[in-house]
Here is the input.
Amino acid sequence: MSTSMSTRFGVLRYRDFRLLLADRFLAPSAFAFSVVGVSFAVLARTGSTADLSYVLAAQIAPNLVFAPLGGVIADRIPPQYVIAFANFLVAICEGTLGLLVLTHNAALWQMITLEAGTGTALAIFYPASQALLPKLVPDAELRQANAVSRLVMNGAMMGGAAAGGFLVAAVGPGWALATDAIGMAAAVAPNLLIRAAATEREHHPGIFSELREGWDEFRSHSWLWGIALEYSVVLMCWYGSFSVLGPAVAAAHLGGPAAWGTIMAFESIGLIVGGFVALRYSPKRPMLFVSVIGATIALPSLALAMLWPVWLICVASLGVGIAIETMMVQWNVVMARYIPADKLARVSAYDVLGSVMSMPIGALLAGPIASAIGVSATQYAAVVVILTASGLTLLSRDIRTRHVDDTPMATAAAVAVAVLAAPAMDSVVPVAAISSDA
Here is the structure.
């Protein structure tokens, strides 16, 4: 049965959800300027893909430490405050880097240090973001809220990536980084106005006990750690072959930062379209769907390796964006159905840790390998590894055959009870927890 547009976007009537959308517009649109700006700042300063590897690895590496810690923090204090702090930290780090680039004083060690600070902020942001949205809307509207939230976020990323690419091409990467800092600072205020409490819990064990509880929950689901392992390999290869080597390919063969910004913008357009698809489509076997989508992530790297025309690379990025966004909404729903609310932030932290723990390795290896065997050969190798990892994941019967109707009722009940207790829900009907944006 079709759902009317008013029903799909009825979640906008909730005040705190509208404030969340303000953050989801300001922060991603601002950070998209940095995605383009950092890469071309490094390339302009050193001209080395190896140096770019080191800087981007520094941005991802903090996830290994701070994602689990961020999960514990977000389970203890209101998650919107964690997000506000993360936004502020990004503003400081990217603003400082922008100032150094504009004054021609940016050294490689400074870039690495400041991007490590940005990476720390991103690491603690993710589990808090996962824990916040379930507190703001009712259970019946959670899938719509996820989709709408991601539509706003991806629309902001689309505009920011395109504008960032042209800004870098016109006046240089320093101004793009400064723009990122201003936008991230503006995103602090909406989070401070959100009225959502931390999840109420009967007891508060020590940090290490909480980490162990989250780990025990994570490893008890073979579909969860199996898919996290798949995406660990997939994202390692994608990050090295696309995020690290992509700007170098764009600079050498595709027209520079404006072309790269356009490619990133088309990926964001695909994410927007995927959000609309997710409003209507729900696979019967979501774990299988998520696993298969992993293989599609190889396409942009293949397009760069073969030096397709810019317009065709944009089409590939568009298609992959649609697939990934549809997958992410389904994954958020699946996580919420199986994971108790009082452990969701910690389990989400282990999920992101498992998925991205090898991305710094991909970043560190991409530049040196490309210097040794060539950029295209490195990207072809990444494509093969991505397809192999996705194929091996399908050997798991639990991933291939589990249906959405298999949700354990006890878990769903526990989620509902946990959120019922939250004081912030006084203005809406009781909700069951569900993941928000990845």
Confidence is low (pLDDT under 50) at residues 1-6, 406-438.
